[in-house]
Specification:
The complex is a heterotrimer of chains A (about 400), B (about 325) and C (about 260). Chain A has about 400 residues and is α/β, with parallel strands linked by helices. Chain A contains 20 helices and eight strands. A four-stranded parallel β-sheet of chain A has the order 2-1-3-4. A four-stranded parallel β-sheet of chain A has the order 6-5-7-8, with helices on both faces. The longest helix of chain A has 16 residues. Chain B is built from nine helices and 17 strands. The radius of gyration of chain B is 22 Å and the shape is elongated. In chain B, strands 9-8-7-10-6-1-4-5-11 form a nine-stranded mixed β-sheet. Chain B has about 325 residues and is an alpha/beta fold. In chain B, helix 2 packs across helix 3 and helix 5 runs parallel beside helix 9. Chain C is built from six helices and 13 strands. In chain C, the strands form two sheets. In chain C, strands 9-8-7-10-6-1-4-5-11 form a nine-stranded mixed β-sheet, sandwiched between helices. Chain C has a two-stranded antiparallel sheet with strand order 2-3. In chain C, strand 4, helix 2 and strand 5 form a beta-alpha-beta unit. Chain C is globular. The relative contact order of chain C is 0.18. The chains are: A alpha/beta (about 400), B alpha/beta (about 325), C alpha/beta (about 260). The interface between B and C is large, with 98 and 86 residues. Strand 17 of chain B pairs parallel with strand 13 of chain C.
């Protein structure tokens, strides 16, 4: 009754069904670019190329015996480089993760994050009632839609980590102050907001994603707003690319896009010089994931900050090095360490350190804690500061 | 109607357990308040000598039988219920423990007595015995009267220190040895043997300083931060139940009800809420420092110092600074 | 072996607990009720035994709130039958009363073994396991962390302080109070729960008369008034670290 019997054929069919353009799997040339560019390909029993080969050779059963699929952090590098444009990350790889979940072969920390999502609507297991606790004690209150009930221009989707994690809450506070300084009519869902569902979806929990999409979608429909703006690239990615198939289509922007559109209003507010050498990390989820391609807007925003000297890292834009936090990866550092003795975040941080920058600018809520942790485990936290673009802007506006 | 108070003694492999003395201390408060007698009920085999330390009681009833040599729920419940029957006392105290809870419920039904559990302290108010219990992970206190004519109560450690119940001054109490009131054959639960806990790498009960980890550590990966801190402090890492249940640390590191009771010079509780089952294992540490972002966590009621900061941010900073402090010569 | 698993819903401690207007009970308006964690372990232990020895697993729970999802989840995990006992349970009922309800419901179920968590966070009048066992006239062993079955006999591993284990041989039928299953409770993917919601049936049975006796009344509920409370160190992680180093030095812990 409970165990889904899966022979290789029906898994193949499942993948084809589950993915738009899944039939492109048949076009694989076995060129190996995917396995080559995969950050953890070297440690996987079945990197992406081998997975496609196993699938087409009807020999997938051994793949289910391996747990190394959990090294995949859904960075979309393989998908973006595949010459045959095979939907790997959110097609084959996510489907394989689903099969592993069905077989209950899932590392404990990820299991907890998923169970927390089911019960509390956030991966951290925090009370939903406290989701907007970060927004208390504001001189000008942060509007919560259910309380103000007024139409807004911007419905700001905050996200799990940005609401609850002690390192990321300051980023949310900075963003609120920026919206207020710009005079934007905005509001947040607060306790009505649930996890966006991106990491759960890419970690194979399609059912959980659907549940979250329903909850968030219904909450959105209660209110009047012109667009959703989010400080979370994962939310951006999933609202734009997956929510429509769940029946919810809204205009959505990443906050750097929104700010790039409002540069003329922003510039006069930036009165405090930030004389620092700053480099920028492109998050996978607004970048190469699903060809979202938001690369220039964050740079335009950074470059209007007075005094700021912008430095480009060698791996930028579509070639960015993932922080390792996607597709469940945020909870699998221990798992990855046991198998690879590396921490993916350290690679990116090392490149930032080598670039000569003093500040590593980010715009994703997983990145501030992950890169700061990486600096600490390398013992180099005094050499580089990690700041969200919102924090840098707030510094420039308020000093 | 008897106003007497009875205590069911708990022993394990030849040792009278600390909880017994907590029960005796509480029993003394009740008996003195009610102006009645305190009786300790000891079950065992060739165990008469153990009664010597039960002097806080006015008398000891000792039931001897081979089937009582080691605790089994059936034999103990039958015996206790049978002995306490005529006349049934005002109050019977059990430990809120693995042994106590196995029999308290059954005995209370046998005596047709209401049952109160997780009791921490007792008193007598206007001639009525009163219980104060902890519930909901130690976050809520529930109190009320112990209904008559007989009430059964299980007690958790912490309300009365065992020292208070070890009354040696009055000398050994009078002991009445007796046979089990009902036959102890055809028992449905039989004792097979003990299994020692796996010889741990570390005996946390001997560690001078403990860095203890709880759910707030979030990921197994983060435990290494605690290990590093423990290393620079010259101590060991211990844990609360969730960590051990997940298999992140062996059960030899468990502090609390099912684990070890520790009294180190420093107990650093990281991401531990401080529920009674854990608190009972460490509340007597010399210096308790709690780090938990939940300012209402019960751990703060027993800690000497606390900070509501993120454990994962604190650990590396603290390790660094201690290294530096030690490097310079403290 | 046919196993019955009893699940009790308890207040979720993640949420703030408020005391109601009467001053003697929890305010249930904002209470989130979740399945007792040790009952989850009991279900896991039951499923492990089923996987090893065959048989059936039947889950029973009193309908004290939103219980359906938990029951469908149990089905998705491998339970054969799930039973919701409906009735007027008012503002929550104590364990003595719950046990009379369970007694009636279990009369129509054939079982060799009953598993339930050894205790629940809101227990004030004993625990379900031993109370039920006494009422049914069955043997009971609690604080169990492992169960093996061989030749129609059950051996339960009972936990004592310090990690010591006592092996107890138990004659069936019996009730065991589970402290922890041999493995952490298994994950079940949401789609299987959704599938169970569509295809599985929750059996319902009426509670009948609820006997309320055997507990002491609660005169007053309050928050612990700590006679001591930790001195809180203010500041960010860095400042707290500095303060702690000073404290440790003062106490001679860094020499």
């Amino acid at each position: 009754m409970t165990t889904v019997s899966t022979n290789d054929h029906s898994f193949y069919d499942k993948v084809l069904e589950a993915t738009p353009r899944g039939e492109r799997l048949k076009l694989c040339l076995q060129c190996g670019m995917c396995s080559g560019i995969c950050p953890y390909g070297f440690a996987m029993d079945y990197p992406p190329r081998s997975l496609v080969a196993a699938l087409r050779a009807d020999d997938f059963a051994p793949v289910f015996e391996s747990e190394t699929i959990w090294l995949c952090v859904s960075c979309f590098a393989c998908t973006s480089i595949c010459p045959a444009q095979i939907p790997l990350t959110n097609g084959l790889l996510a489907s394989l993760k689903t099969e592993m979940l069905i077989r209950r072969k899932v590392p404990a920390e990820l299991q907890t994050a998923l169970e927390n999502t089911r019960r509390y609507g956030n991966t951290l297991g925090e009370s939903p009632r406290k989701r907007a606790a970060w927004a208390r004690d504001f001189t000008t209150p942060v509007p919560i839609m259910a309380q103000t009930k007024e139409p807004v221009d911007v419905l700001w989707f905050v996200g799990d980590y940005a609401s609850y994690h002690p390192r990321v809450q300051p980023v949310s506070k900075a963003m609120a102050k920026i919206f207020q300084a710009l005079g934007v009519r905005f509001g947040i869902l607060g306790p009505e907001e649930n996890s966006d569902g991106d990491v759960q979806c890419l970690a194979g929990e399609r059912g959980l994603f659907e549940m979250l999409a329903q909850k968030n979608g219904k909450a959105f429909r209660k209110y009047q707003f012109k667009e959703i703006v989010t400080t979370d690239p994962h939310a951006y990615n999933v609202f734009k690319n997956e929510y429509p198939s769940a029946g919810f289509s809204f205009p959505v922007k990443h906050y750097t896009q929104f700010l790039a559109e409002h540069l003329e209003q922003l510039k006069p507010l930036l009165r405090h010089e930030q004389k620092y050498r700053v480099t920028y990390h492109d998050p996978c989820c607004i970048g190469r994931a699903n060809n979202n391609n938001i690369y220039e807007e964050p740079r335009r925003v950074l470059k209007v900050i007075p005094g700021l000297e912008f430095i480009e890292m060698p791996h930028n834009r579509v070639n960015s090095i993932c922080c390792g936090g996607g597709g469940g990866g945020n909870w699998l550092d221990g798992f990855a360490w046991e198998r690879t003795h590396t921490r993916m975040s350290e690679w990116r941080v090392k490149e930032a350190l080598d670039s000569g920058a003093q500040i590593l600018a980010v715009c994703c809520p997983y990145e501030t804690p992950r890169f700061e942790d990486a600096l600490k485990s390398m013992g180099r936290e005094k050499e580089l500061v990690v700041k969200d673009i919102a924090e840098l802007l707030a510094d420039a506006i308020f000093g | 109607m008897s106003q007497d108070v009875w205590v069911v003694v708990e022993t394990l492999r030849g040792e009278v357990l600390d909880i017994t003395y907590t029960l005796l201390a509480a029993g003394r408060v009740l008996a003195d308040g009610l102006g009645s007698k305190l009786t300790a009920l000891l079950l065992g085999h060739n165990a008469e000598g153990w009664a010597n330390t039960l002097g806080a009681a006015d008398s000891v009833i000792y039931v001897d039988h081979a089937a009582l040599a080691d605790f089994t729920p059936d034999a103990y419940r039958k015996t206790i219920a049978g002995v306490i029957k005529e006349p049934t006392p005002r109050i019977v105290l059990f430990g809120h423990t693995s042994m106590g809870m196995d029999v308290a419920c059954g005995v209370s039904l046998d005596l047709d007595a209401p049952l109160v559990t997780s009791c921490q302290t007792v008193r007598v108010k206007d001639g009525q015995p009163w219980y104060v219990s902890l519930t909901c992970g130690g976050k809520i206190v529930a109190e009320g009267e112990m209904p008559g004519p007989t009430c059964a109560v299980t007690m958790i450690p912490g309300g009365y220190k065992p020292e208070a119940g070890r009354a040696a001054m009055s000398g050994a109490p009078p002991v009445t040895k007796t046979q089990p009131p009902t036959a102890l054959d055809d028992l449905r639960v039989g004792f097979k043997g003990y299994i020692e806990p796996p010889a741990g790498d570390v005996d946390i009960a001997k560690a001078p300083l403990l860095v203890s980890v709880g759910r707030g550590m979030q990921q197994q990966d983060h435990l290494k931060l605690a290990e590093e801190l423990a290393a620079v402090l010259g101590g060991s890492v211990s844990a609360s139940r969730p960590i051990v249940d997940q298999g992140w640390l062996p059960s030899s590191r468990l502090v609390g009800k099912s684990g070890k009771t520790v009294k180190p010079r420093l107990y650093l509780a990281l991401g531990i809420s401080g529920a009674p089952e854990h608190a009972e294992g460490m509340r007597d540490a010399e210096l308790i420092v709690a780090v938990n972002t939940d300012e209402k966590a019960p751990i703060y009621d027993i800690a000497h110092f606390g900070a509501a900061v993120d454990v994962l941010a604190l650990l590396p900073a603290l390790t660094e600074k201690i290294k530096a402090a030690k490097g310079r010569g403290a | 072996m046919d196993i019955a698993v009893l699940i009790k819903f308890v207040p979720d401690l993640v949420e703030e607990l408020e005391i109601g207007a009467s001053g003697a009970a929890l305010d249930r308006t904002f209470l989130r009720l979740i399945p007792n964690e040790q009952d989850d372990h009991a279900l896991e232990q039951a499923l492990l035994l089923k996987e090893r020895h065959g048989g059936t697993v039947t889950v029973l729970t009193l309908d004290t709130g939103d219980v359906d999802e938990t029951l469908f989840t149990a089905v998705a995990k491998g339970a054969d039958r799930v039973i919701k006992i409906t009735g007027d349970f008012g503002e929550g009922i104590n364990n003595h009363a719950a046990v009379t309800v369970l007694d009636t419901a279990l009369k129509n179920i054939s079982f060799d073994l009953i598993l339930t968590g050894t205790q629940a966070v809101d227990d004030l009048d004993g625990s379900i396991g031993p109370l039920l066992a006494a009422r049914l006239g069955l043997p009971y062993v609690g604080y169990v962390t492992g169960v093996t079955s061989a030749d129609g006999k059950i051996v339960a591993r009972k936990e004592y302080p310090g990690g010591l284990i006592a092996e107890m041989e138990v004659r069936l039928p019996a009730v065991l109070g589970i402290q922890a299953a041999e493995k952490p409770p298994r994950y079940v993917v949401t789609s299987l729960i959704m599938q169970a919601m569509k295809t599985a049936q929750i059996e319902e049975t009426e509670a009948g008369a609820v006997e309320v006796r055997g507990a002491a009344g609660v005169a007053r509920m309050s928050r612990p008034e700590a006679t001591t409370h930790a001195e809180l160190i203010e500041g960010d992680a860095d400042q707290v670290a500095d303060a702690l180093v000073t404290l440790f030095k003062e106490r001679g812990l860094l020499s």
